[in-house]
Write a structure and sequence with these properties.
This protein has helices at residues 31-43, 59-67, 107-121, 140-153, 166-179, 202-208, 238-242, 252-271, 275-285, 299-306, 315-324, 341-344, and strands at residues 4-5, 12-13, 17-19, 48-50, 77-82, 126-131, 156-162, 186-188, 212-213, 293-294. The strands form two sheets. An eight-stranded parallel sheet has the order 9-8-7-6-5-4-3-10, with helices on one face. It has twelve helices and ten strands.
C-alpha cells in the first residue's frame, strides 16, 4: 500500500478511507458483521477510518471502537465528526428536533461531545476531529478556539472541516492566523464524476492552504454503482428513502444524472473497467485529493471497491469523462451536502416589508 500525506499534519494514511456511516441502524445493524467488514479493510491495508457522532446516533462510533479494541487502535488514523443533532432516535425522520444545545459548533457542545465520542470509540484520543457542517449562528473563532484547546490537551491530534464552502475555508484560515489559533488542516467535501462543483473553487483553495482532502461519496450515493442505468428498474435503498430529493427520477436534475450515469457506465464497459473502479479511480486521480471515503454496507461492497487502487486511468478516458460531465458540474444541489441559508431562507434575499 502506498501511503499519502494527510495535508501537512505529518500523518500518513492509506489512499482509501473506510467510511463508517453504514455501520449501525442506518445500514448494517449487526455489529459482528460490521466489525468483520472493518477488520477485512484493515487486513487489506486501509489505515484510515472516518465516522461521525450522528451516524446512527453514536452506534457507528461504538462499532468502530469495538473493531479497534484488542490492539488495533494504534495502527489506525481515526477520524470522527460533530455538529449534527444528537439525542434523538436513530430511526427518527430527518429534521427531527431535539435539545438545541446538543448539536452545532459551539464551544459548549464541542467540549461536551468530544468526551462522548471518546467514550463510544473506546480511545483516549482522536486523530482527526472534524466539523461536520458549517453553523451560520456560531463564530468561527468560537469553534476554532475550542478545537485548539482540545488539541493542546491531547484529546485530538488535528482538526478539519466537512462540506464547507470555499469562502468559509478561507475565512477560517484567516481567523486562525489573526487569533493565533489552530487551523483546519483537512476538508471533507462531496466529490464524484457526477458531483464536480468543488473543482471550480474548493479544491484549488485546499491546495493553496496545503489541506488534506477526503472526499465523501465517490460513488455519488450509489448512482455510480452500476445499478442506475437506462432501461433498468430503479433500485430502492434506505438512503433513497431518507434523501428522496437525490433519487426521485421525477426531478429533471435526477434525470440528467441518470443520463450521465448511463453514459459513464458505457464508458466503463468500453474501457473494460468496472464502473465502481472507474468512479473511485477518477477521484483518486485529482492532485488535491488525499483519500476518497468508501462507505460499504456489506462485505461484497467492500471487496468491489478496494480494487480501484489498482486502476490507472488514461488521458483518453479522463477526457471522455470530461465530455460526459463537464468539469465543475454538479447536476443537483441536493448532492452538495450543504445548502447555505441564503438559499433556504427567503428573507435572506428579500427586504422585510410591513
Amino acid at each position: 500500500m502506498e501511503y499519502r500525506s494527510l495535508g501537512r499534519t505529518g500523518m500518513h494514511v492509506s489512499p482509501l478511507c473506510l467510511g463508517a456511516m453504514m455501520f449501525g441502524a442506518w445500514g448494517e445493524p449487526d455489529h459482528d458483521t460490521s466489525i468483520g467488514i472493518i477488520h477485512r479493510a484493515l487486513d487489506a491495508g486501509i489505515t484510515f477510518i472516518d465516522t461521525a457522532d450522528v451516524y446512527s446516533q453514536g452506534e457507528s462510533e461504538i462499532i468502530v471502537g469495538k473493531a479497534l479494541a484488542n490492539g488495533r487502535r494504534d495502527d489506525v488514523i481515526l477520524a470522527t465528526k460533530f455538529h449534527g443533532q444528537m439525542g434523538v432516535p436513530a430511526d427518527a425522520p430527518a429534521g427531527t428536533k431535539g435539545d438545541p444545545n446538543s448539536q452545532g459548533n459551539s464551544r459548549r457542545w464541542i467540549i461536551r461531545e468530544v468526551e462522548n465520542s471518546l467514550r463510544r470509540l473506546g480511545t483516549d484520543w482522536i486523530d482527526l476531529y472534524q466539523v461536520h457542517r458549517p453553523s451560520p449562528d456560531t463564530d468561527l473563532e468560537e469553534t476554532l478556539s475550542a478545537l485548539t484547546d482540545l488539541q493542546r490537551q491531547g484529546k485530538i491530534r488535528a482538526f478539519g472541516s466537512s462540506t464547507f464552502p470555499a469562502h468559509e475555508i478561507v475565512e477560517a484560515q484567516w481567523v486562525a492566523q489573526r487569533r493565533g489559533l489552530g487551523r483546519f488542516v483537512t476538508e471533507q467535501p462531496p466529490y464524484s464524476m457526477l458531483v464536480r462543483g468543488i473543482e471550480a473553487d474548493l479544491l484549488p483553495v485546499a491546495q493553496q492552504y496545503g489541506m488534506g482532502v477526503i472526499p465523501w461519496s465517490p460513488l455519488a450515493g450509489g448512482w455510480l454503482s452500476g445499478k442506475y442505468r437506462k432501461g433498468r428498474e430503479t433500485p430502492g435503498s434506505t438512503r433513497a428513502n431518507r434523501l428522496p430529493q437525490r433519487y426521485d427520477l421525477s426531478l429533471p436534475e435526477n434525470q440528467r444524472k441518470l443520463d450521465a450515469a448511463d453514459k459513464l457506465g458505457q464508458l466503463a464497459d468500453e474501457a473494460g473497467i468496472p464502473l465502481v473502479h472507474l468512479a473511485i479511480a477518477f477521484v483518486l486521480h485529482h492532485p488535491a485529493v488525499t483519500a476518497p471515503i468508501i462507505g460499504p454496507r456489506t462485505m461484497e461492497h467492500l471487496e468491489s471497491q478496494i480494487g480501484a487502487l489498482d486502476v490507472t486511468l488514461s488521458t483518453d478516458v479522463l477526457d471522455r469523462i470530461d465530455e460526459i460531465v463537464a468539469p465543475g458540474t454538479t447536476f443537483s444541489r441536493a448532492d452538495s451536502g450543504y445548502v447555505p441559508p441564503a438559499l433556504t431562507d427567503p428573507f435572506a434575499r428579500r427586504r422585510r416589508t410591513a
